[in-house]
Write a structure and sequence with these properties.
Radius of gyration: 19 Å
Helix content: 40-55%
Order of helices and strands: EHEEEEHHHHHHHHHHHHHHH
Strand content: 5-15%
Structural class: alpha+beta
Mean pLDDT: 96
Number of helices: 16
Strand order of the largest sheet: 1-5-4-3-2
DNA sequence: TTCCAGGGGTAGA
DNA sequence: TCTACCCATGGA
């Protein structure tokens, strides 16, 4: 294979690539691949002009190294790849204010030293919307399978028969609803995803504006807007808000309830209200405090 | 068979 | 605002 082009991006203070990878399950969802031995994050990415590249992302030292394979890219295309990578690995998310907050709060003081906070996200809000819907009311194994089938069926391939990129809403919208449902096997979620893709493709809906919107309004207002999306309820809206950098509401799912049950309630079941109450004192940092909590230490 | 998984939509109170 | 019920799918 031809030598890849390498982008070497400098890391902000405290940034820990390994902690970002371990923060949640997204590295296991296509088109991401995670090679634990090589500590390499892989991903096929399709550029706006249709070019498809294979990314190999590592951080062996003080930089984030992004190896790009595929067609030659000009400066504009390279900038597009860099922008996408920076967004996905949260290289530009500023956690310094959160870390200062952690210093004064028992239970959070381990966080700055471990460089916690960053989480992997999709290149687009559309991608994280789809994945969030696919995590609801199902097992993690099925979530992975649904996303894998979506990518395999509709994603643009790298080279001839290589791995595929996350499909655009335009490609999903072009599929017949019945064919989409049969291919992805996402159950009752399929119409949510397909209809949303159609609305984006028709220009009636713009999910990418949420990247900016998350910086303009507080978490409750952002969640109210996210909850208008099909298949997005309290949990998924909070999870999407978290990925957008808005941390004021804990995404409570069965996994969160289980953590709180074991760590704080002697193993007895907890209500959603109790989970929220446990992190209420952390204000606009509630979701980050929850995600970065030292669950082993408190159990 | 029945239950339920990193919940959400809807109707009725 | 809260509750009850339904929802495709697939593994236990």
């Amino acid at each position: 294979m031809e030598e890849p082009v390498r982008l070497a991006l400098s890391l902000p203070p405290h940034y820990r690539f390994d902690m970002m990878i371990e923060a949640h399950g997204w590295p296991q969802l296509a088109p991401f691949t995670w090679d634990a031995e090589a500590k390499a994050l892989g991903r096929v990415e399709q550029l706006a002009n249709g070019k498809v590249v294979l990314l190999d992302i590592k951080s062996p030292g003080a930089t984030l190294d992004v190896d790009i394979r595929g067609p030659d890219l000009d400066a504009v295309e390279l900038a597009e790849v860099e922008r996408a990578v920076r967004w996905m690995v949260e290289l530009d998310e500023d956690f310094e204010e959160f870390y200062a907050f952690c210093d004064g709060h028992p239970g959070l003081q381990h966080i700055p030293g471990r460089g916690l906070g960053a989480m992997l996200r999709g290149a687009t809000v559309w991608e994280d919307y789809v994945k969030s819907v696919c995590t609801t009311n199902t097992t993690w194994a099925q979530t992975r399978a649904m996303v894998a089938r979506l990518v395999e069926t509709y994603g643009a391939p790298f080279e001839r028969d290589g791995p595929r990129a996350f499909p655009s809403p335009v490609v999903v919208a072009a599929a017949a609803p019945e064919a989409f449902a049969a291919a992805v096997r996402a159950g009752y979620r399929a119409p949510y995803l397909h209809t949303t893709a159609c609305e984006i493709a028709e220009g009636k809906l713009d999910l990418e504006r949420f990247k900016q919107r998350a910086r303009e309004v507080d978490t409750p207002a952002l969640m109210a807007e996210l909850r208008k999306l099909r298949g997005i309820g309290p949990y998924a809206a909070a999870h999407m808000a978290l990925l957008l950098g808005s941390y004021g509401y804990v995404p409570v799912d069965s996994w969160a309830r289980d953590l709180v049950r074991r760590a704080f309630n002697g193993g007895a079941p907890v209500s959603d209200r109790e989970v929220h109450a446990r992190f209420d004192r952390f204000g606009r940092w509630r979701a980050l405090a929850f995600r970065c909590w030292d669950w082993e230490g408190t159990a």
